[in-house]
Amino acid sequence: MKSGLIVASFLTLIACQYDEIAPRDNYPEEKIYLPAAKAAEADGGVYLINEITQAMPDYFPTPGAPFRYLADKEANTFEIPLAVYRSGVYIGESVTVEVAINRDTIANLIASGAEEWEEVKILPEGKYAIDPAVDIPGGKTNAPFRLEVDFGFLRQQTPQKYAIAVSISCREKEVNPELSTVVILIDTQIMLPVPGFEPAIDALNTKKVTFRNTSDYALSCVWDFGDGSSLKGQGNVEHVYAANGVYEVTLKTTGLYEDEVTCSKSVTITDTEL
Questions:
Q1: Handedness of CA 186, 189, 193, 194 (dihedral sign)
Q2: Which of 190, 214, 249 is the last residue of a domain?
Q3: Using omega within 30 degrees of 0 as the cis cutoff, is the peptide bond preceding 137 cis?
Q4: 3-state secondary structure of 134
Q5: Tens digit of pLDDT for each residue in 87-117?
Q6: pLDDT in tens, 198-208
Q7: Do 155 and 18 touch, CB atoms closer than 8 A?
Q8: How many domains does the chain have?
């Protein structure tokens, strides 16, 4: 009987001690932040969109969306997935976070005279839309929202660079001031593919040619080897010709906005040793 009382008293003591050491009131306060602003630190504080597909190494701006944009020509949307997160051990009730466009930030960067901002323009009003607020549900750490840009407008502006800044605020919780604004820079040259390739004839088999693909901003590549055969492939490709001759090789690239751009080169096939 005594041993049972001792065990019960010991368990009660542990429970009391735990409640004393870590009451809910002593949990770190929640802080709201933009993970895209954290991701931008690796690029000098700017969230760059300058590649056809760009996966984020560590921080996803939206849960489950590792890419910095989603392009839809039919809907005419160039969507940049973003999100608000909250840190803290105890995740409580629902929180509303206000979202706003901060044009002054971009204006100040352009006015700074820094070389990297000389050819940048502020994304014009009317060419984008953004959710004015987003709710992080109770018990959840994040909530997605989106910045939608006029896709056709961006394509027409190639190769202009446009920037926009997104800021968050919250009346209910503290916002991390270092991660409350993200500067987004869109390099519109990614809209138009730039095809290119270099042929190299095999030294041991002079009818075999390796084509090194040097194209930029191409979503797909189709090769016409000039002998009636073709191949789809974005990387380097090989082709073996059946006979000697001069062949016109054409590479057709398709870009983000479904533009098709081609380039051609002649390849001479002979039995002469290299």
A1: negative
A2: 190
A3: no
A4: strand
A5: 876 677 899 999 999 999 999 999 999 999 9
A6: 999 999 999 99
A7: no
A8: 2
